[in-house]
Specification:
This protein has helices spanning 3-24, 29-34, 36-46, 70-80, 120-133, 152-163, 184-188, 193-199, 213-223, 259-277, and strands at 61-64, 140-145, 169-175, 178-179, 182-183, 203-207, 231-236. The protein is α/β, with parallel strands linked by helices. A hairpin with a 2-residue loop joins strand 4 and strand 5. It is globular. The protein starts with a helix and ends with a helix.
């Protein structure tokens, strides 16, 4: 996909996020929206995956370590063709397979059940080690929140990945600066994030704007050249990106828009989509 197509796809994924969370009357729009461009780049450009063969043993793996941003992952999977987009409206409903956190047993394209913060990266490290032991060429990607990396288990997993030289592992940190209780720097500062990963023997790539596809492309292309060590891509993003009243507002970490807010958000995204179509 070219940059414009990626931007259009990300805009559709944002519509899916807002629609799903609104229909559920619950969920986590802020961090789903900040990571929408990352989901888009991974599923439509970077990863070797096929919705027609979701269990391909040679596919690349993705673990959503910050599992509460499942609306973003689900919207990307639906856009990719793993399941019908209209199913996004069943998010968190009784009997729906689209639960509040990813479930590998029931959702096509989900490689790991996640949501207990800090644990997803451990699973991803295990997958990457498994690939090495089996001489498989697939790569493993995992997305963490900047609040999530306050969890100690993250650094145990990072230490292990560095020690085992897992160069088939790419850890992405969605550094949108906000977590449920406020600014990450005020709650329990994880900074400097890059220096911490470097200390655990990672190749670190800082992305100044993680909502920009040129910068994401450069980062993921660089990660593919790294040998002998895992890669950490630290992306500076905007929480709630794409919906004006949600951007950089901590209150939108974990609440759904009401009908009026939903209408405003969708109108903004429709307008953004139309502007992209005129380019």
């Amino acid at each position: 996909m070219n940059k414009l197509e990626l931007q259009k796809t990300a805009n559709e994924i944002r519509k899916g996020i807002v629609s799903g969370v609104h229909a559920a009357k619950a969920g986590h729009p802020g961090g789903s929206l900040s990571a929408a461009d990352i989901f888009t780049y991974l599923y439509f450009e970077e990863m070797n995956v096929d919705p027609k063969n979701p269990k391909d043993p040679d596919r690349d793996r993705f673990v959503l370590s910050k599992g509460h941003t499942a609306p973003g992952l689900y919207a990307a999977l639906a856009e990719k063709g793993y399941f019908p987009k209209e199913d996004l409206l069943t998010l968190r409903h009784l009997g729906s397979y689209l639960q509040g956190h990813p479930d590998m047993k029931h959702i096509p394209g989900v490689d790991m059940s996640s949501g207990s913060l800090g644990q997803g990266i451990s699973a991803a490290v295990g997958m990457a080690l498994g690939a090495k032991l089996q001489n498989k060429a697939f790569r493993v990607y995992t997305l963490l929140g900047d609040g999530e990396i306050q969890e100690g288990q993250v650094w145990e997993a990072a230490m292990f990945a560095g020690a085992k030289h897992l160069d088939n592992l790419v850890v992405i940190v969605d550094n949108n600066g906000l977590q449920i209780d406020g600014n990450v720097a005020d709650v329990n500062s994880p900074y400097p994030i890059d220096k911490k990963f470097e200390a655990f023997n990672f190749h670190v790539i800082n992305v100044a704007d993680g909502n920009d596809f040129d910068q994401l492309k450069a980062a993921f292309d660089e990660a593919r050249t790294v040998t002998g060590m895992p890669t950490a891509i630290i992306t500076k993003t905007v929480k709630g990106k794409g919906v004006s009243f949600m951007e950089n507002q901590v209150g939108w970490h974990g609440k759904a828009p009401n009908d009026e807010e939903y209408a405003i958000a969708m109108a903004e995204l429709e307008k953004a989509g139309e502007a992209l179509c005129q380019k």
